[in-house]
Every structure is written in C-alpha cells, then in structure tokens.
Amino acid sequence: MNTETFLSLLKQIISSLEDGLILNYGKKFSSLTITSYRQVYNQMSNYKFNFNIESLDLNNVTNRKDRLKVTRNLQTHVNKYLNMMLDDCKHHNTRKTHLKIIRTTLKKAENYYGYLFPKLQSMRELQTEVIALDPKQVDLIHNNNPGIELEDVWYYTRLMLYSCMRVSDLVNFQASSDDSVVTIITKKGVGAISSFYLPKDVRVFLEGKGSFAHSQQHFRVRLKTLLKSYKELHEKKIIYTYDHNGNPIHEEKFLYDIITPHKLRASGITYHLSKGLSEIEARNISGHSNGSTAFYRYVKHSNTDSIEKQKQYSIE
Fold first, then answer.
1. Strand partners, 106
2. Which end of the chain offers a freer environment for a tag, N or C, measured as fewer CB atoms within 10 Å?
3. Segment (H or E) for 301
C-alpha cells in the first residue's frame, strides 16, 4: 500500500474502519468514532496540511542520533498542526481529541502496515470542575413525575442516574431484571456488564420499551425540556472552564442548560457515593477501573459536607 503522506494513511485507515477490516475487539468501530477520524482528515485538508511519513518510520533508522531526529521531526509536524488549530481558535479539548486520533492512526499503521513511529508527547491536562446534579436535585427528579408528555425521557433519565451509563450506551443496551436488581449489558468497547438496584416503575417501563428509540441528540433536547420543567433547576450556577488558549474563564448559566446527558453519569456516581456506596461498589456500576483519575474527581465532588466541616474548625 502506498501511504507516503499522513493524509493518505488516514484516508486508508478510515476506509478500513468503515469496511470492518480494522476491528475493535472483534467489533466494528462505531459511527461516532469513524466520524472523529473524518473530522481530523477534513480539518487537515482544510488547512492544506500534510507531511511525509515514510521518512518518520523508525524501521529505516539504525542509530540513536537518527532516531532522535525522526522523533523531533514527527513531533514538529504534529505541533505545527496543533498550533494551526490554536490560531484558528479551536478549543483545547478539540485539539486534544485530534492529537488522540493522530496517535491512534499511527498506532493502527504500526499494527496493520508494519510501520514503527516515535511516541508523541501528551497535551497538558486541563482539570475543569466536575459538574453534576447534587443528591437533593437527583432525589427531586426521582420523586417527581413531570407528567405524560415528559414521562418517556423521565424514565430514561432515572435509568441513567441509577446505572451511570454513558449516553452512547442509552441507544444500544440490553437489560434483564431479577426482582429489584437489574443487569445492563452495553456495547462500549468489548462490552460492559453492571448490576444495580432499579425501582419497580422504571423496570416495568424498560420491559415495555428497552433501548432509547431515538438519537443521542434527540435525548439531549428532551432532557433539557425535562430539567426546565423543575423550577428548582432554574437557579443559576457559576461554572469554570477554559478558553481555546487554555486560559481560565467563568460564566453564569441555568442548571438546566449545564446538565447534559453525560453529566447524568457524573450525577449518578456522586449520588451513589453520597448515599453511602463504597468506591468499589460505585465503580462496579459505572465501569471505571481501579485508580481511575476521572472516578476520583467524582469522589472529591461527592463530599458535599467538606465546606461545612471547614467552617467548624475555621476562625472568622
């Protein structure tokens, strides 16, 4: 195969992903994943950016000096692309995602086409605040049926809060129940299985409906409508994020605008922890691995009494 440039390699990888020639643990990659690869291809094409990869193949290098030169050259090419995105005001997280796709493209080229590339440096991690519904707000949703027009999304929202599943799993999962215990099998990666308590009314609903019948985007719109129906979620909250340069910024938003489908996962984890589940019990539900950095951010966020404890031993 003639892949002399990165763009031609990326195009070939995308074609192989679409045709199922490259699999993820025996399964085809999702359309969302393939779209991520296409976005990098389109962005590079738009910038008219490309670079030769044959000269970056470590298989063709025999001494340490040349290996270092190849490593620097690859990093320089990638940094140039990331800087072009920065100049174009692309957000830090977007640039980070593109770097990840570049890495995985090179890795697939090694696994399937016999190349050997140097390792790329990671981007600086930006730790933003974990945004989630607090336990009282989660209880508010669980205990208040919004009415027939929103009942569908209400049940699926409660399922996500109890299961801590990703929104991508909502449209493709299987569930079985044994009394009050529900076992969910999702499609993520090699598949994930978790068991958890689910109230009877949600179990009955799932038995008649199963997986969410619409798109993730449709659920996102319906979730916002559901959250707006609770006047308690009309309060405003200051959130802290980063601009495309990585500079900290803050803005005030309504809670119903802040809580996205993925934040239901964070809300569910912090809810379980606040109710007394151990870290390992919560991880068994959410699917986080032992020592997961992301999970421990939820642990910290779930300690809602920390400020009150500080007040008790602080002197004004």
1. none
2. C
3. helix 293-302
Q: What is the DSSP letter of 188?
A: S
DSSP string, 80-105: HHHHHHHHTT--HHHHHHHHHHHHHH
- Give the whole-angstrom CA distance, residue 54 versus residue 66: 14
Report which DSSP code applies to 275: T
Cα–Cα distances in Å, from 74 out to 6, 99, 115? 11, 12, 14
Provide the residue type at 166 as one letter: R
* Predicted confidence (pLDDT) at residue 299 exceeds the cutoff of 70: no
Residue pLDDT, tens place only, 84-113:
998 898 888 889 999 999 999 999 999 999
Strand 248-254, strand 192-197: pairing: unpaired
What residues contact 48, with CB distance under 8 A and at least 6 apart? none
Residues 6+ apart with CB under 8 A from 52: 4, 5, 6
Q: Which amino acid is at 140?
A: L
**Hey, what are 187's tokens?**
């499609």
Count, residues in the chain: 316
**CA of residue 93 relative to chain centroid, distance:** 11
Judge residue 198's burial from the number of C-beta atoms within 10 Å of its C-beta, 0-12 exposed, 13-18 middle, 19 or more buried: buried
Instruction: Answer for the pair 248, 240: CB distance below 8 angstroms, yes or no.
Output: yes
State the Cα–Cα distance between residues 150 and 227, nearest whole angstrom: 10
Average of per-residue pLDDT across 17-36: 89
DSSP 182: E
Q: What is the mean pLDDT of residues 71-80?
A: 94
Sign of the CA dihedral with 149 first, then 152, 154, and 155 last: positive
